[in-house]
Design a protein that fits this description.
By secondary structure, this protein is an all-beta fold. The protein is built from no helices and eleven strands. Strands 2, 4, 5, 6, 9, 10 and 11 form a seven-stranded mixed sheet that branches. It starts with a strand and ends with a strand.
């Protein structure tokens, strides 16, 4: 049973930081690229960041480059998203996602190529 459980969200003021975690189980975590997406109120899901298997190569949406850092600890089957200098526009429910086996690293922004999402964790950035 594949499970992804996000945690670490909360209410913060602009400029503050949060670290999100995604605990994975039920599959060989180290063999899959993983991503974070978010969904703001009234909007569709927005791809945020991905991390590759093996090399640990990362990629980010332009809106979060320089502020967010994705990482993974394969020994702990855990995905992380360090979010610094948070802005009100970062307010959203954040989800971690597991790519379909064999999906291309070069299409990580295609949300149709994910086969599992967590329940999400709420991040609210407000003064």
């Amino acid at each position: 049973q594949v499970q992804l459980v996000e945690s670490g969200g909360g209410l913060v003021q602009p400029g503050e930081s949060l670290r999100l975690s995604c605990a994975a189980s039920g599959f060989t975590f180290s063999a899959y690229s993983m991503s974070w997406v978010r969904q703001a109120p009234g909007k569709g899901r927005e791809w945020v960041s991905s991390i590759r298997t093996g090399s640990g190569m990362t990629t980010y949406a332009d809106s979060v480059k320089g502020r967010f850092t994705i990482s993974r600890d394969n020994a702990k089957n855990t995905l992380y998203l360090q979010m610094n200098n948070l802005k009100p526009e970062d307010t959203a429910v954040y989800y971690c996602g597991k790519r379909k086996y064999g999906s291309s690293w070069f299409s990580v922004q295609n949300l149709n190529e994910y086969d599992k999402w967590g329940q999400g964790t709420q991040v609210t950035v407000s003064s």
